[in-house]
Amino acid sequence: MEAKKSKKADLESKRILFFEVGLTVSILLAILAFEWKSPAGINTSLIAELGNNNGTIELPPITTDPKEMVKPDPPKVVISEKIIVVDNNVEPNYNTDIFEEPKDAYVPPVIRIEEKEVDEPFERVEVMPTFDKGDANHFRNTYVIPNIRYPQEAIDNGVIGVAYVEFVVERDGRVTNVKVLNKIDKSLEREAIRVVSSSPRWEPGINNGVKVRVKFVIPIKFVLNN
Q1: pLDDT tens across 60-84, in order?
Q2: Is the pTM of this model over 0.90?
Q3: CB proximity list for 224: less than 8 A, separation 6 or greater
Q4: DSSP state of 31
Q5: Percent of the chain at pLDDT above 90?
Q6: Which positions ≥6 away from 163 have C-beta within 8 Å?
Q7: C-alpha angle with apex 161: 155 to 166, nearest 5 degrees?
Q8: Which of 71, 43, 37 has its CA nearest to residue 57?
Q9: Helix-strand-coil percent breakdown of the chain, rounded to 5?
Q10: Structural domains of the chain sorted by starting position, each given as residue range(s) with its CATH number in brackets
């Protein structure tokens, strides 16, 4: 039994149509190929030469002669025809006031600090003070001990002791600043101060040729006699 083809599936009748369509497309492609233009700004000749020269491009030679190049004009120097004569006898104006203080300048007041005279007594000087041409021991033995009056209160209570008395021989020989340095019975302290303070004048001490104050400390022993 022979198979029958459907009319819709039969392409033999459409062969002429396919031929005409293919021919039209071919003609259009040919026209487009002839009408094709390279993009603006691209030198296709260089591309062609690149293929012929194995990747090297030759630059066009310089055709401008360096001698014919235009050089810029040199700068113009303007010379004045007028000459100004200046006198040589012009003296410079030196202003000497810049080295002087202005007359109305503020002058701060001078503050004077009065230095207080340091008059501390010496303990040792070149020439020590003397009492009746003797030293401090001579003063104690010849004046203080003979003039001690043992306080009756101390005798009644049987009080004894040693008073260390400090005093200063002034520049004029007077004896001042008498005091007892250690603790002792008040009656004995008062008697020691009384006797030393009543001392006659001494010969003052001398240091560097000047009379000075000198300080002494002497012991005064209070003992009851049986």
Answers
A1: 565 555 566 666 677 666 665 655 6
A2: no
A3: 150, 155, 158, 160
A4: H
A5: 46
A6: 180, 182, 184, 188, 189, 192, 219, 220, 222
A7: 120
A8: 43
A9: 30, 15, 55
A10: 136-222 (3.30.1150)
